Amino acid sequence: MNRLSAPLTPARSTGLHPNVTVIAHPLIQQKLTLARDRRTGVEQFRRLVGEIARLMVFEVCHDIPTQDVVVETPLAPCAGRRLAVEITLVPILRAGLGLAEGILELIPDARLGHLGVYRDEDTLEPVSYYSKLPPNVAQTDVVVLDPMLATGGSASAAITIIKRTGAKRIRFLCLVAAPEGIAAVTSTHPDVAIYTAAIDDHLNEKGYIVPGLGDAGDRLFGTH
Ligand code: PRP
Ligand code: URA
Q: With 190 labelled, which of 8, 29, 167, 180 sits at a CA distance of 20 to 30 A?
C-alpha cells in the first residue's frame, strides 16, 4: 500500500474505540487540570490551551509520512528525514483557534483552513456559517481542532465539509471528549483518528460536558 494512502493508526487506542487515543502524559494532564479549574482566568486559560495542543500534536502527528533526505553537517553527509506531506490545521471557530495558535509555534509552515460551526443552543444541532480551506487540502494531512467534543455534531459537520474536498487523511484533536461525542464521530466518520486528553463522564441536559471545563470559547475569548 502507498504510504500516503495508508489508513491512519492511533498511537495508543483506548479500548473504547480503536480510533480513539487518550494522551495521558503527565504534563498534559497537569495543564488540563489547571484549565478545568474555574478560578483560572482568561490569560492563563488561553496559554494552557495553546500549550496542551502543542504537546498533544507530537502524538497526533506520529504517523505523518516522511521521506529520506541527506544533509551536510559541518563534518559529513548525514541521512535524515523530512515531512513528505503538508499539514493543514482546521480550527473549528471559535474555540479551535486557541489550539491552532499553540500548534503553529511548532509547525509554523502548516496551512490553515477555517470552519465556522456553532451549536444551536436549543436544538444542539451544528450550524455551519463559514468555510475557507486551502485549495490543495485534499493532498495534505488534515488535523481538525476543537477543544470540546460534546454531542459530536460540530466535529462531524466539520469533517463532512472537509471530506467534500476529497481529503482522506483526517485527524481530530480535542482536549475533552464526552462518550456521546466519541460515539457520534466514530460512527459517522470511522476513518478519522480522534485524539483527546480526557474522556469525561457525560453530557448534562444543556449538552455541556461534565465535569468538562465549561464553555471553551467563552473562557478563551472572555465572552462570559
Ligand atoms: C463549542 C465547542 C465545539 C462545540 C462542541 O462551540 O467549541 O465547537 O461547542 O459541541 P458539540 O460537540 O455538541 O457540537 P460553540 O458552539 O459553543 O461555538 P463557539 O466556539 O463559537 O463558542
Ligand atoms: N461546548 C463547550 O464549550 N463546552 C462544552 O462542555 C460543550 C460544548
A: 29
For the chain, the average pLDDT equals 94
Write out residues with Cβ below 6 Å of ligand 2. Answer: 148, 150, 207-209, 212, 215-217
Is residue 4 very low, low, confident or very high in pLDDT (cuts 50, 70, 90)?
A: low
DSSP state letters, 16-76: S-TTEEE---HHHHHHHHHHH-TT--HHHHHHHHHHHHHHHHHHHTTT--EEEEEEE-SSS
Residue with cell 467534500: 164
The CA dihedral of 108, 112, 114, 119, to the nearest 10 degrees, is: -50
Cα 174 to averaged position of ligand 1 atoms, centre (Å): 11
With 0.85 as the threshold, say if the pTM is over it: yes
